[in-house]
Write a sequence for this structure.
């Protein structure tokens, strides 16, 4: 049985790096941080749109553009089929907006309902369509595993163009064209485009072909950079690694948003989430805007989220954003109740929870399929083990099928592991797909105990003891006088930070001069570095556990701006705390 106790993380510092190539271009600490993330100088840190990889290098692009040109020339009805997460919603909005700008005569969208249709372009979704049917179906952020759905659409006379970024299985769907940087043999240098990034690249390639054919008037080309606000949001929200290409996309989108150049729906979401547009960062996309879009697909219908992103009416955008905000509040309540249920079951070794020693499977008939991914993520953080959380696939919670969402630890490739499970026992899993760190699957309820056994066996064969040790990776200490607003602002400017390009984290021992609890759960402290007189402000959100901090603490922290009451200071954002 899995140990239900939280895993206390171990602090480890990044190895020393050379910063010779940076000269005096940036603050020495910023140079150290960027060098530790593989950048060798100012040019590598420059995030101009001119540095984007060429869309023509994506495999399958020529066939995809040929198909879209035919759709434009013959006035086809194009239906965009998205996914029910933020990447799929933003990608759908990008596809609809972009195709309309490039001359598509009729473009609409559809998105599966999580409970009624299943994932992606499914036969159940295709069956809901009534004549007149679209001539072309364009999938966004799905389709690479939609074998039956693609066949169903083509059997009804539709062409299918798949754009996706998920890892393919042994066989590809019988689509008319496929664009996916993760196809075997694809030479595109970045394998980390989100679904929204793939479809944005498709639009760039289509515009380039139209330009080459002389079909765009000089100086009057359709603007696609206006879609970068949506591309940035979907990329950050999907937690794809921020390699250089993705950082360029996100940085450009954030820059436009800070300048007020964003669609009405995103502007409204920024307002209802209480964020400041001029200082919007990647963390705001990931923790404020993304969850509000995701909530629609988790609990309601993602059409709500997509309509918010497509409308040009500010009043309609505001109404949609308020609706999404309310759904997100309900999602938080359900998530908290499910987390408490999971933790209580772990503590009690409850039989409803099927556990392994390394690979952990969680299930409750009372859970909601739209929220189990969040439960898996939190429990993975608590146990520091791969976790799959299951819920009934039907809304009544009484059907024979379960939907699972899995989250992994570094070094354990989830999709490969699920493929291993499927190979060991064919038919055990009905369907699965995903990435290294996150995946989804469907199986029959009666097969859950056996799945849990095989998944745990697979995990034990692939995971060693070192991988199960939770670590906090620090960029080292900051010396006396370095914890200043100047450095905090320089670190913010060096972003965007995110998955695969982690926000700078520092460590050090401090004296606790004073402390108090704010907002019931947050611990605010006044600290001092030993041997340095200047007091420092620090806050640990959710850090109050009922036990006062000791006189000396070891902290892992980030630097944040402190502008409360126009203070224009700096504060330490405590991420981990240990007794010194």
């Amino acid at each position: 049985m899995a140990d239900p106790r939280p895993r206390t993380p171990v602090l480890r510092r990044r190895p020393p790096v050379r910063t010779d190539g940076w000269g005096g271009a940036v603050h020495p600490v910023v140079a150290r941080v960027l060098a530790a993330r593989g950048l060798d100088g100012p040019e590598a840190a420059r995030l101009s749109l001119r540095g984007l990889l060429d869309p023509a290098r994506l495999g399958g692009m020529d066939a995809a553009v040929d198909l879209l040109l035919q759709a434009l020339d013959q006035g086809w009805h194009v239906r965009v089929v998205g996914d029910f997460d933020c990447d799929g919603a933003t990608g759908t909005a990008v596809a609809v907006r972009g195709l309309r700008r490039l001359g598509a005569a009729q473009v609409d969208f559809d998105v599966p309902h999580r409970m009624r249709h299943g994932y992606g372009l499914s036969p159940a979704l295709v069956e809901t369509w009534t004549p007149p049917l679209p001539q072309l179906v364009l999938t966004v952020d799905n389709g690479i595993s939609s074998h039956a759905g693609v066949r169903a659409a083509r059997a009804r006379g539709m062409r299918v163009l798949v754009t996706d970024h998920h890892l393919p299985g042994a066989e590809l769907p019988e689509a008319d064209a496929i664009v996916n940087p993760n196809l075997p043999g694809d030479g595109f240098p970045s394998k980390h485009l989100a679904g929204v990034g793939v479809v944005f690249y498709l639009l760039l390639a289509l515009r380039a072909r139209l330009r080459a054919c002389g079909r765009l008037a000089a100086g009057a080309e359709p603007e696609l950079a206006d879609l970068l606000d949506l591309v940035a949001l979907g990329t950050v929200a999907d937690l794809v690694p921020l390699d250089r290409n993705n950082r360029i996309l996100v940085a450009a989108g954030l820059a436009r948003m800070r300048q007020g150049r964003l669609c009405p729906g995103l502007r409204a979401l920024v307002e209802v989430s209480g964020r400041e547009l001029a200082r919007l960062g990647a963390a705001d996309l990931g923790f404020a805007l993304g969850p509000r879009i995701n909530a629609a697909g988790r609990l309601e219908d993602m059409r709500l989220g997509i309509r918010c992103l497509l409308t040009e009416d500010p009043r309609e955008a505001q109404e949609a954003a308020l609706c999404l905000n309310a759904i997100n509040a309900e999602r938080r309540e359900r998530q908290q109740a499910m987390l408490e249920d999971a933790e209580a079951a772990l503590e009690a070794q409850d039989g409803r929870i099927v556990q392994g020693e390394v690979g952990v499977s969680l299930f409750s008939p009372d859970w909601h399929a739209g929220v189990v991914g969040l439960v898996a993520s939190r429990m993975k953080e608590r146990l520091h083990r791969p976790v799959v959380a299951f819920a009934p696939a039907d809304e009544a919670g009484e059907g024979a099928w379960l939907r699972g969402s899995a989250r992994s630890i570094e070094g354990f490739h989830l999709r490969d592991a699920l493929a291993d499970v499927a190979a060991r026992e064919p038919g055990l899993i009905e369907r699965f797909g995903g990435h290294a760190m996150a995946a989804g699957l469907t199986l029959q309820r009666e097969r859950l105990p056996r799945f849990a056994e095989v998944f745990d066996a697979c995990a034990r064969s692939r995971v060693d003891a070192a991988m199960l040790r939770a670590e906090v990776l620090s960029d080292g200490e900051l010396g006396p006088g370095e914890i200043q607003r100047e450095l905090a602002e320089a670190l913010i400017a060096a972003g965007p930070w995110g998955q695969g390009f982690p926000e700078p984290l520092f460590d050090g021992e401090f004296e606790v001069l004073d402390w108090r609890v704010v907002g019931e759960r947050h611990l605010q402290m006044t600290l001092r570095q030993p041997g340095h007189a200047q007091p420092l402000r620090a806050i640990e959100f959710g850090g109050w556990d009922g036990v006062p901090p000791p006189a000396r603490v070891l902290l892992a922290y980030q630097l944040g701006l402190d502008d409360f009451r126009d203070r224009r200071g700096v504060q330490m954002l405590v991420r981990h705390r240990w007794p010194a």
About this structure: The mean pLDDT is 93. The chain is about 35% helix and 20% strand. The CA atoms of residues 417 and 514 lie 48 Å apart.
